[in-house]
Amino acid sequence: MRGIEVLSTAIRKTQESHLHLTSIHAHLVHLCLLSKCFKPAVKLMDVDIMDISKERGMYDVKHFLLYYYYGGMIYTAIKKYERAQYFFRVCITTPALAVSHIMLEAFKKYILVSLILEGKIGRIPKYASLVVTRFIKPLSQVYWDLATAFVTNCPDKVCAVISKNQDTYIRYGFNMPILL
Fold this sequence. Notes:
Elements: H1 2-14, E1 20-21, H2 23-35, H3 39-45, E2 51-52, H4 61-77, H5 81-92, H6 101-118, H7 130-139, H8 141-151, H9 155-164, H10 166-173
Parallel strand pairs: 1-2
Protein name: COP9 signalosome complex subunit 3
Keywords: Cytoplasm
InterPro entries: COP9_N, CSN3
């Protein structure tokens, strides 16, 4: 928790304006998630980002994806599901030539949050990369199966899918992978 204030100060000093995303944002949100001290991250994440700091050409898309992934995790933890769904959607619709591990994990959480909010899988927006729409479903089939069973409103089908894939859900779905 000691690092949260240090990273918050670093963000304030390096940002061109409060609407700019820096690489430090991802580190701060990750630290807040690990320490379960969400307030500093939520204060930062409630401001919609309008630009990305150039950082002398050293900014990496990984920081962008991790900021939105970890942000979605925090919003899910505090039960702000609409905002969580938005953060996961931004993560999965980021232009890409390949599906990254971060995008895949965000999509799995996107499915779960969509089930909570809407009772069905949220549609992947049409502006998502073709690569993402083509390859993300096969890579997250276990979650699609859960969503398909959930939509049937049959508790037995949901229980059967959960029982069948319990190890996968525990290993990959409900434990937060450390991606940073």
